Batch of 2 targets.
Target 1
Amino acid sequence: MKLRRGIFFAALAPIVLILVGIGGLLFLLQRGFAPMQVPRIAAVTTPINADVVEHGRYLSRIGNCGICHTTRGGAAFAGGRAFDTPYGTVYSTNLTPDQRTGLGDWSLEEFRHVLRNGVSRHGFLYPVFPFENFSKLVDADIDALFAYLRSVPSVDAPARANALEFPESRRGAILLWRMFNYRPQKFIADAAQSAAWNRGRYLVDALGHCAFCHSTRGPLASLPASGYLAGGVIPVQGWYAPALDDTSLTRFSIDELAEFLRAGTSTHGAAYGPMAEVVLNGLQYLTAEDAIATATYLKSIRVAKNPPAEIRKTEHDLGMNAGDGLALYEKNCADCHGKDGRGKENIYPPLRDAVSVLASDPTNALRLVLYGGVAPTTELNPRPYSMPPFAQQLSSTDVVAILNYVRQQWGNRSAPLTPADVVRMQGIVLD
Ligand code: HEC
Ligand code: HEC
Ligand code: HEC
C-alpha cells in the first residue's frame, strides 16, 4: 500500500513541478511582483506650467481619457461610465483632483505606475482600461497628462461598484489574465524609419490604443487574436472596427486618411458609431503633422501577416430578391447615396467599395440602416449630414433585400445576408 502511494507521488511530483515552473514563468513575464508595488508617497504640489497642462489636454484627447472617464451629460473626468463586457459591467473612475474620490492625494509616481502597470491602490485593474497600450507612453507625456488632470475642476464622485460575475468580480482573478496576456513593452523608435512613421506608430500603439477596437479579442478578452490591427468586433457593443492596413485603407491616400481622422468625413466614407465618438472627442484635435504621421504609419502596415479575412468578395448571382432590392434602394437610399452608389462628395458616403458593405461581418451596415447615424461635428466638417433610421419603415426582409442589392452592385461582391442577420442585431446594446 505504502509503496503504491510512494509511486503515485513520485509520478505526480514532476507534473506539479512543471506546473509550478510554468506558473512562475508566466508570473515573471507579467513582471513578477513589481506591478504590485504601488508607490504610496505623499503628493507634492508643483508649480503649474501652462504649456505642460495644454500639452496634457492634447494627449488626453488623443488617448480618449475623457470619453471613457465621463458619463453622458456628466461632469468631465468624474468617471462612472459603464463598460459592458461579456463578464458584466465595469465602471470607470474619477480622475479629477478631488481629495477623497479622485486623484487628489496621488503622487506623480503613483500615476506613472498605474498607467504603466495597470495596478493601482485598489488592486489589479480590469483591462477595459488600456494600460497595456499606455505602458508604452514616455514619461514626459504621462507627466503632462497628470498636470492636465490636476487642472480640471474637482468633482466629488465616489467610484461605482462593478457588477461582474464570479470569478471576474475578484480583482485577484485579473492576475491570471495578466499572466497570459500582459506583456508590457517600452516604445522603441525604429531608426530605419522616418520620424513621421515613428510618431505615427507611437500615436497608434501607445496613446491612441487603436488596436483596442481594431483587433479581434481572443479567449478571456485577450488581444489581439486575429493579428495586429486586423479588424474585429467590439464585444457586446456590436460594432465592427475594420482592419487598418495598406490593403484595407487602399482607397485613401495618406492626405485623405489624415483628413478622415481629423474631419470624420472624406470622399471615401464617414466615421460613425464608436469611431464618430473617437473623432469627435479626440482625433479631430490632432495637429496636421500628427494626423499625417498616423496615416503614414497605418498606410505602411503590410498585410502579409494580416490576411484581410473580413473583406470576402464572393461571386454570387443576384438571387430572387434583387428586383425588390433595386426598387427599395431607389426609393429609400438613392437620394443620398446615388443610383450609382457613389454618394455625394464629403456629404453622403459612397456605398461602392465601402468597408461596411464589403465586410463579411454585416454589423455596421445593418446597424446604420436600422438605427441611422450621424458623422461627428468637427472643425473641418462643422455641419455633418446624418442618415435616418429605417427600423420603423422597413421590414427585416426589406432591409436584407436592399443590403443584398447594395452588396452585389457596382462591383461589390459580398456574400448575401439573411433575415437571421437582422434578428441577431436585436440583442445589441444601443447607446
Ligand atoms: C476604453 C476606456 C478607457 C480609456 C480610453 C481610459 N480609461 Fe482609465 N480606466 C477605465 C476604466 C474602466 C477604469 C477602471 C478599471 C477598474 O476599475 O479596474 C480605468 C481606470 C483608470 C485609472 C485607475 C484609477 C484608480 O483609482 O484605480 C487611472 C489612473 C486611469 N484610468 C487614467 C486614465 C488616463 C490618464 C487615460 C487617458 C490617457 C485613460 N484612463 C483612458 C477606462 C478607460
Ligand atoms: C472605441 C473603438 C475605436 C477606437 C479606439 C478606434 N477606432 Fe477606428 N473605428 C472604429 C469603428 C467601430 C470603425 C467603423 C466605423 C467607421 O468606419 O467609422 C472605425 C473606423 C476607422 C477607420 C475607417 C476605416 C475604413 O476603411 O473606412 C479608420 C481609418 C480608423 N477607424 C482609424 C482609427 C485610428 C487611427 C485609431 C486610433 C488613433 C482608431 N481608429 C481608434 C472603432 C474605433
Ligand atoms: C438622408 C440621406 C441618407 C439616406 C436616405 C440614406 N443614407 Fe446611408 N448614410 C447617410 C450618411 C450621412 C451616412 C454617414 C453616417 C455617419 O457617418 O454616421 C450614411 C452611411 C451609410 C452607410 C455606411 C457607409 C460607409 O462608409 O461604410 C451605409 C452602408 C448606408 N448609409 C446605407 C444606406 C442604405 C442601404 C440606405 C437606404 C435604406 C441609406 N443608407 C439611406 C445618408 C443617408
Note: Residues 204, 208-210, 212-214, 239, 241-242, 244, 248-249, 260-261, 269, 271-275, 278, 294, 355, 364 surround heme C (ligand 2) (CB under 6 Å).
Target 2
Amino acid sequence: MLLKVLAVTLYVTCRQDTGAAAHYILFMRSPDQLLHPTPAGLYCPVGDFYIDPVRAVDRAVITHGHADHARAGHGAVLATPETINIMAARYGEDFTVRRQPTELGEVVSINGVDVSLAPAGHVLGSAQAVVEHRGLRMVCTGDYKRRQDPTCTPFEPVPCHVFISEATFALPVFRHPDDRDEIRKLLHSLTTFPDRAHLVGVYALGKAQRVISLIREAGYHDTIYIHGALKSLCDLYEDHGISLGKLEPATLEKGVAKEEQAKFAGKIVMGPPSAFRDKWARRFPDPITVFCSGWMRIRQRAKQSGVELPIILSDHADWDELTQTVRDVNPQELWVTHGREDALCRWAELDGYKARPLRLVGYDEDS
Ligand SMILES: [Zn+2]
Ligand SMILES: [Zn+2]
C-alpha cells in the first residue's frame, strides 16, 4: 500500500510540476469524491451541485446555452451572464428560481467547493467549469473549440489534475478545414448562381451568428434574410456587442406574387435545419440547400439529407484540437464525455494519460 502511494505521488509530481498535485492525494482518495457521473449528469457531492444536468436539480452549474446542456426548471443556476440571458430568452424569465451570474475568472464557493468559469470558445457565454477542493482541481469543458470565432471569447487551457473533455468529433477522420475557405464556397456559389436563393441551414444558437459574422468578415454586406426562429438570439448577440450587419425576416406568405419571391434570388436566406422540411423552404426561387456543420465532412450524410452545398463548419473541437488540448492542459487523468469516448481514451492511453469514458447520456451530437 505504502509503495503504491509512493508510486502515485512520484507519478503525480513527475507529470505535473506543482506541489498541489501531490497535495490533493493526501486529502482525497480519488477524484470521484469531488465529481462523478450520475444519471442526472456530473455531480459534486461535496458541493451538492451538478454540471449541465439533464434533469431538473436543486443546483446547477451550466457551461453554455445549448438546450441539451442548459435545461429549464433548476432551483439555482450558476453560469456566465451571457448564458443566463440566453436561457431567459429561450425558456422565459422564470427558467430557474435563483440566478447566479458569474463572470469568467470569478471564484464562487458552493458549500466549501470553489467553482469558477473559464472561456470555452464554443458559443457566446460558453465556459468550462473549474471545480476545486482541497488542492484537487477538475475542469469540465462542456462543448469547446480552439479556433478563432468572432462571436465568443477563445478557449483557455486551465492546468488541472482531471480534465473532462467532450469528444463529439474524436476520430482522426474529423479534421475541420479552414472556416474562411468554407465561407468562400458559399459566396462563390452566390455569384455563380445569381438567380437562386441560397437556403443556409444553421443552428439558432452560435452557428447562425458565427456564420453571419464570417460572411461579413469575408466582405459580404448585403441583407441576410433570417427565419423567425433565429431572430431572438441574433438580437441577443447584437445586444452583447456582436454586430451582424443588415438582417431582415425571411417571410414569404403562401401565394405571394412572383416579383415578391424574386427578391430572394441570389440572396442568403438562413433558417434552422428543421425549417427546411417545411413548406417555408419551397417558396423561395429555385433554392440551393446549404448546411453548415462539422458532420458535412461525411459526404454520405450531406447527400442523404439532400444538401447540395455542404459547408464544413463546427463549433466543436476536431481531432487535432482535442488531442492538442489534452497535451496543453496535461492533466493526470482525462475523463471523456459525449461523443467518440473510446477513441479519445485509447489515444490518451497511448500518449501516456490515464483515461476514462464517462458514458453520460442525454447530450446531443451537434449542439
Ligand atoms: Zn454538447
Ligand atoms: Zn453545445
Note: The radius of gyration is 22 Å.
